[in-house]
Specification:
Blueprint (H helix, E strand, L loop, with lengths): L14 H9 L5 H5 L5 E4 L12 E18 L2 E10 L2 E8 L3 H6 L6 E10 L2 E11 L10 E4 L8 H15 L8 H6 L5 H9 L4 H30 L11 H9 L7 H15 L5 E6 L5 H13 L4 E5 L3 H15 L6 E4 L5 H13 L4 E4 L13 E7 L6 H8 L7 E6 L5 H7 L4 E5 L10 E5 L4 H13 L3 E5 L14 H10 L7 E4 L5 H12 L5 E4 L12 E6 L7 H8 L10 E5 L8 H8 L3 H12 L2 H4 L1 H4 L12 H17 L7 H14 L3
Parallel strand pairs: 4-6, 8-13, 8-14, 9-11, 9-12, 10-11, 12-13, 15-20, 16-18, 16-19, 17-18, 19-20
Antiparallel strand pairs: 1-7, 2-3, 2-5, 3-4, 5-6
Helix pairs in contact: 4-6, 6-7, 7-23, 7-24, 9-10, 10-11
């Protein structure tokens, strides 16, 4: 047996077990060995029911009775009475109806581990794990690995198969350079993986986690170092800084640039003068003015005969950027063109011709920009808005339309925590816009209980009467009888037929044809609707300065980052704006709702979001593939700093990465994944 052996050939793995493992994406021995536990349950301190006290507790007991009932739509409550030789105890599980099947009708003893707390006027064990006593490992310490339940995969089955593979763990090859293992005092890989699956003491688990987390971060950060090193060898366009061009541009703006905008613009202009292509990320909180910074840079590029291409994810966003840039640049004779799907026939052919002969200086568009028919005379500067919405190949196609690699500015309105930027974008240069324009008032955010909805509707009517507009956001398109989440269709009908029957209401959701979505958003922007009832399809960056109120229904079901992005649709004009976070129930507000109620700072909220939920959504997993992080957490800034220094030492030492086969493969994967050029 070796690491590539199929799991079907392992002793004790029958057809049914093999099928379950395959469904979880586990095909070979190596796949299962690398399927690391997500946590370890500590059963070392088991107490009797008579001795239980508030806090995290573990008991050994039988289930005397158990039942599951639907409390309300979307919530199933499972309650049980647990018993040992000293007494009885209530246990409760939320939305875990399978516990009834697991525990009913058996006299087996289980280890139950959970939070013992006072809730609903009584003490109970809340959402405890339940492990059959006879399935527990034989060692006295009883640290039990718990695996992700991918497609219903059960931890006892995984542990049983791993027991057969235990001898193989001791001969697993090392993947990290020996000098780094020695310098960082890391556990060897074979020992680390064996400890994760078969731990003896808590201190060993900590050391194993440290080794494996360090390796994951080292791979990611080494890829970033190598990307920067390779980028430094490339030849880019030299665009000299001309003070009078920039001064004239800034002087004609109808507002003052913020200090953050000035710093970001100077960063870009300095990069233009270098001999290597710029590779910069411009992070700006919602409404911070990224387009103006891009416009200033495009003006400088045009003064030397270089064209700019700005790619946006949707037609409405591209149109908005084109209008904004045209206002800024046309006074200087800089021509802006718009290339989107709705530009057809002769107009499209003419635009292709103007781009190719250099008559158009700045081309704003969607994916239409990367078509083969689009040829530039001299493309020197590429701007990609909401860059996480585009795949690596799409970005590359646009960059390939230049003789030299053009300067690249990637913009995002999703603030990225420093720790995440360090790992995902590594040594990429980052500019941050963390100031709002001077005329923008902070958005007043309030958590609202469903029973207070009527008072909010009164305030909304006053805002509409004053000529303002309102967003109402729902997470579902259609009504679902199995839960109590409001749907956009039902809420649209309800508001139209009752509370706001005297107002004009629009409806927007993802199932509408693209042209209809564009039309609805266009009409709302032009004040044809007082209220827009929408799903989260409302675009990041769409500017409707007249919209001053947003209600987010079932706000407790949204992520923190998403709530902040949605809130950014209002507060874009001179008037005071409001965001109402409507709860699903009268329960206590979640931590993320309390955080967003007290802060308008997207960078602070991004750090909180990373701690609460991890990197997936911030990074844009759907577009880029997944970060292969099983153990490391991107909130661990100390470990990131250690791994970053080690990666730098490795690169500077000139060591040959290819002699470490597995490490090289993972680093090359991350190089493709995280590069912007």
């Amino acid at each position: 047996m070796n690491l590539l052996t199929s799991l079907e050939q392992v002793k004790g793995v029958g057809p049914k077990t093999a099928e379950q493992l395959r469904a979880a994406g586990l095909h070979t021995v190596n796949d299962l060995l690398m399927f690391l536990p997500r946590r370890h349950e500590d059963f070392t301190n088991v107490v009797k029911i008579a001795d239980i006290s508030p806090g995290k507790m573990t008991i050994k007991a039988r289930c005397e009775k158990i039942s599951t009932r639907m409390v309300r739509r979307g919530l199933k409550l499972t309650t049980a009475v647990l018993v040992d030789d000293t007494g009885k105890l209530n246990a409760v599980w939320f939305n875990q109806p399978y516990r009834t099947q697991q525990l009913a009708g058996t006299n087996d003893e289980f280890y139950f581990s959970g939070e013992f707390e006072f809730q609903y006027n009584r003490y109970q064990l809340t959402n405890p794990s339940a492990e059959t006593a006879k399935d527990m490992p034989v060692q006295a310490d009883r640290l039990l690995p718990v695996y992700r339940a991918v497609h219903g995969l059960k931890s006892p089955m995984v542990r049983k198969v791993l027991e057969e593979l235990r001898p193989l763990m001791s001969v697993l090859p090392e993947t990290m350079p020996p000098e780094i293992i020695a310098t960082e005092k890391l556990m060897d890989r074979a020992n680390a993986i064996s400890t994760m699956h078969f731990p003896k003491k808590q201190e060993d688990v900590v050391a194993a986690r440290d080794r494996l987390a360090f390796e994951e971060l080292f791979q990611l950060l080494l890829a970033s170092q190598l990307n920067k090193q390779e980028n430094a060898k490339l030849e880019g366009w030299h665009i000299p800084f001309e003070q009078h061009v920039v001064k004239d541009f800034v002087a004609q703006l109808p507002f003052e640039l913020t200090s953050a905008q000035r710093r970001a613009a100077w960063d870009i202009l300095q990069d233009f003068e270098a001999q290597v292509p710029m590779n910069r990320l411009l992070q700006g909180d919602v409404g911070s003015g990224k387009t103006v910074v891009a416009g200033l840079a495009a003006r400088q590029a045009a003064s030397h005969g270089y064209q700019t291409a700005l790619m946006a994810p949707t037609e409405i966003l591209a149109t908005q950027h084109a209008e904004t840039l045209d206002k800024m640049l046309s006074p200087f004779g800089v021509k802006v063109g718009l290339l989107i799907g709705s530009v057809k026939g002769k107009a499209r052919a003419t635009l292709y011709e103007q781009i190719e002969n250099g008559e158009v200086d700045v081309v704003v568009g969607t994916h239409a920009l990367i078509q083969d028919k689009v040829k530039f005379k001299q493309l020197g500067f590429v701007v990609i808005d909401e860059q996480h919405r585009f795949g690596v190949e799409q970005r590359q196609k646009l960059l390939d339309k230049s003789k030299h690699l053009p300067h690249l500015l990637a913009m995002t309105a999703t603030p990225i925590p420093r720790s995440l930027a360090l790992t995902v974008y590594g040594e990429l240069e980052v500019s941050i816009l963390n100031e709002r324009p001077a005329n923008r008032l902070p958005i007043i955010t309030k958590i609202i209980s469903p029973i207070s909805a009527k008072t909010i509707y009164g305030h909304i009517d006053q805002e509409i009467a004053a000529g303002r507009q309102v967003y109402v956001i729902c997470s579902l398109i259609d009504e679902n009888p199995d839960n109590d989440i409001k749907s956009v269709q039902a809420e649209y009908k309800r508001l139209k037929n009752s509370v706001f029957g005297h107002r004009s209401i629009g409806l927007l959701h993802g199932k509408l044809p693209a042209s209809d979505k564009e039309q609805v958003m266009h009409d709302f922007k032009n004040n044809k609707y007082d209220i827009l009832v929408s799903t989260t399809v409302v675009e990041v960056g769409v500017d409707v300065p007249n919209a001053t109120v947003m209600i987010i229904e079932n706000a407790d079901r949204f992520g923190l980052s998403q709530l902040h992005q949605l809130r950014g649709r209002v507060g874009r004009g001179d008037h005071q704006s409001y965001c109402y976070l409507m709860m699903s129930s009268t329960n206590k507000p979640t931590e993320r709702l309390r955080e967003i109620e007290k802060s308008n700072d997207g960078f602070y909220l991004a750090e909180v979001d990373l701690k609460l939920r991890g990197p997936g959504e911030i990074y844009g997993k759907a577009q880029h593939g997944a970060l292969n992080l099983q153990i490391a957490t991107l909130a661990d800034t100390q470990l990131i700093s250690r791994a970053q220094k080690a990666a730098k030492r490795f690169v500077e030492s000139g060591s040959d990465l290819l002699q470490y086969k597995e490490l090289a493969a993972q680093v090359q994967y991350y190089q493709r994944l995280t590069t912007l050029n």
